């Protein structure tokens, strides 16, 4: 019983967090991409959409792989501890992907500014 409830809770929370972060990044990231691509809206929108697709694929893949567990879940406490550990890793991955994307966009922006300054 606890295993099924744990799986369902993990999937629900992980997928909801992934969708929320992806939508937030998509909405807010457009400004950065427009700046990085010197106002080329079609290119910025296309890259933004591709980033979101990649984001979903990576996170869905990890969520699916992390679903499996061999740990015994005899009581509710063990289920919550296992679930919180798995969700914590999902959150760390989401955060790492966000900072990596910000790093790449900042580097692209710097290159664009340097190319037009010199």
Give structural notes.
The chain has 118 residues and is mainly α. It has one domain (2-112). 87% of the residues lie in helices and 0% in strands. It has helices spanning 2-36, 41-66, 76-117. The chain starts with a helix and ends with a helix.
User: Helix proportion of residues, in percent?
Assistant: over 70%
The description of the largest β-sheet is: none
Radius of gyration: 19 Å
Estimate nothing, just give the exact number of structural domains: 1
Mean pLDDT: 86
Poorly predicted regions are none
Distance between the termini: 66 Å
Class based on secondary structure composition and strand pairing: mainly alpha
* Topology order in helix (H) and strand (E) letters: HHH
* Shape designation: elongated
Give the number of helices: 3
Q: How many E-type strands?
A: 0
Strand content: under 5%
Keywords:
single chain, 118 residues, mainly alpha, 3 helices, elongated
Walk me through the topology.
Layout: H1 2-36, H2 41-66, H3 76-117
Helix pairs in contact: 1-2, 1-3, 2-3
In short:
This protein is mainly alpha-helical and 118 residues long.
């Amino acid at each position: 019983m606890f295993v099924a409830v744990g799986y369902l809770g993990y999937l629900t929370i992980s997928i909801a967090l992934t969708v929320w972060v992806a939508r937030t990044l998509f909405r807010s990231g457009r400004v950065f991409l427009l700046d990085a691509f010197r106002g080329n809206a079609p290119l910025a929108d296309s890259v933004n959409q591709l980033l979101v697709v990649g984001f979903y694929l990576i996170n869905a893949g990890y969520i699916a792989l992390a679903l499996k567990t061999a740990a015994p879940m005899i009581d509710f406490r063990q289920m919550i501890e296992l679930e919180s550990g798995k969700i914590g890793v999902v959150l760390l991955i989401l955060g790492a992907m966000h900072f990596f994307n910000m790093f790449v966009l900042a580097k692209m922006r710097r290159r664009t500014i340097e190319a037009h300054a010199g």
